[in-house]
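User: These chains co-purify. Model them together.
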Amino acid sequence: MSDRSDIMANMAQGMSQGSPHAREMGFELVSMDGRAAIMKAPYKDIMVGDPDTGVIAGGVVTTLLDHCCGSAVHLAMTEFKIIATLDLRIDYMRAATPHKPIFARAECYKVTRSVAFVRAVAYDETPDDPVAAAQAAFMLDSSAARPSGGKGRPTGEAR
Amino acid sequence: MSAADDRLQAMLQRIPYARFLGVRAELAGDEMTMILPFGEHIIGNPVLPAIHGGVLGAFMEMTALAQLSIKDGGERQPRVIDVSVEYLRSGRPLTTYARADIKKVGRRIANVHVEAWQEQRAQPIAALRAHFLITSG
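Assistant: Joint model of the two components:
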């Protein structure tokens, strides 16, 4: 691994530890393989969407996929840029098995100057039997278009 | 409080994930507004700071489910088939609101659109389109 990809890997790792929500959910980057990131979410009671079955809420899967896709973008870029999700499409194939951790594997398969494209799956046993599949697009350097001054604070206009 | 409102509040209270996010709902007739108060625990990017995009997706998905249960009287349990989320503006550290618009409820499939906003309804921060499978019992 080159120094540069080390830095990107640190960034991707930092994204899960630096994000308060990801910390609350216990998201953990478990491996990085080229442009793919694999993230794990432990089963937690706060994630439950159906109290009768103990199945986690679809929204938790959404968040894990979004987060993992973002990490994959950071891995795939050659320099650090602030990124923002443009869109995220998710197909839910089946309920996640209760009381088991859930994983996401995201691969950033194309990076252009302004946009990165990612696909991902969420699974509990194997990626071949997915709980959900996602396709996402990210805007790169999303703060670049903001007016200067105020150190790139969000203006509430374009992301 | 109407029966629909009682049912809605009871449903949200029963879901651990909804309680964790801190989601509330207000019902005016059949028009429901979901409310997501801002809190540290929903921050995705601490530098900006911005609400986690996944949380906004989850919040809008919950809005769609709640609106479907109001329409249906909670008789059927909708299950999400797919969602498509568009992110329009950064989710700032403010209260977020969402409303769902049920486009169609068929025998098996429901199609729902949701929009989320913060200070101005006309400037949505995110939108969601979803399909749900509706099964009896």
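The two ends of chain B are 26 Å apart (CA to CA).
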